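Appendix C. Worked example: Dienelactone hydrolase domain-containing protein
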Amino acid sequence: MTLTDACCNTQPTNAQWQAKGEDKVLTIKVDGHERKAYRTGPKDSKRGIVAIHDPLGLHPTTFQVYDRLAVSHGGFQVAAPHMFKDGPVPTSLLGDRAAFWAWIGENGDFKKNHINDLILAAVEDLRADGCTTFSIFGQCWGAYIAIQAASEPGQPFLTTGGPHPSFTTIESVKDVKCPLILLASKDDPDMIPVIESVKHDDFPVESFHRRFDNVPHGWCGSRGDWSDPDQFKAGLEVVDLLGQYFAKVSAIAEVKQ
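Step 2, the predicted output written as structure tokens:
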């Protein structure tokens, strides 16, 4: 799998943003443990989004993306689970590719770490709060996880993907059951072949790709610094593209309900 160098050697930033939502304990325990999710967005929205943060956890720019997305294009209820039971990757491992990869393998494995159970628990809380349609996206490793979740049998998601995706290859999307939105940075591999590989006639909308060649990997997550004008402009465009895409697939699904 493809691991961008910037993914495993870039420290989180000291970006500023006051989170608009709050942490809530998920109703369903995961592997016997209580887990939490950050919740944001209008409580009367019937459109749910599960958001998967990058390996460094929830940071100000991550919250900013979720908060802005939640009030875009008619509004969404966003649930962002705290993905790692014992906390995110230690920053001391950044710069050591082998150690970083080993940590992900130990703590961020989709099956071993009950990640799909955590995601589905977040879906059920969104459903209990009135949501009837669901999308999923992630940043970096989170996009890879979001794609795995949307490749599972019986998965509930209408679309998947996210900004600056890591580990995303033609092989990793071969079983995906909904269209992709991939928003690459200047540091990420070419995502066009991946998008081309999932153009299926039975998807309600075409998969979507855009490349942002003036911003670094991680700019929509823990490594983002939106005091930088280029990152801020590109970040707002990502929020708009995600919101527009999720609203479009939700509207199509709602007509069929």
